[in-house]
């Protein structure tokens, strides 16, 4: 099993920045992927960003492209989501996720990933 623990959520004003972290432990895969998803109140969970652990290929939802950056630190087994120029519509619970194989952003938009953290709340005030 893979364990994922998110941190870094909180309250921020519109236009501000936050960095989310996700520490991973447990089983790892040679070609796995990590990602971030979010769920706003009353809405379905949606894909935000993904990264291939080996090679660093990234993909983003159109709504966050140019504002959010996903990265990973292999030595720390940690993935990050740097969020800049935050908007009130970015308010959501953000979930870290992992997949045993990088399947691409189109797949993740529809089906998500195999393993999930418990989420961290991000609130953006106007």
Explain what this protein looks like in three dimensions.
By secondary structure, the chain is mainly β. It contains 1 helix and 11 strands; from the N terminus they run βββββββββαββ. It has one helix at 105-111; strands at residues 2-7, 10-13, 18-26, 33-39, 46-52, 58-60, 68-73, 78-83, 92-99, 115-116, 120-125. Strands 2, 4, 5, 6, 9, 10 and 11 form a 7-stranded mixed sheet that branches. The chain has a 4-stranded antiparallel sheet with strand order 1-3-8-7, with no helix packed on it. A hairpin with a 4-residue loop joins β7 and β8. The longest helix has 7 residues, at 105-111. The radius of gyration is 13 Å and the shape is globular.
> Radius of gyration over alpha carbons?
13 Å
Determine the structural class based on helices, strands and strand pairing.
mainly beta
Distance between the termini: 40 Å
Strand count, sense and barrel status of the largest sheet are: 7 strands, mixed
Low-confidence stretches: none
Number of helices: 1
Report the mean per-residue pLDDT as an integer: 93
Shape: globular
Helix content range of the residues, please?
A: under 10%
Tally of DSSP β-strands: 11
Strand residue percentage? over 45%
The SSE string, one letter per element, is EEEEEEEEEHEE
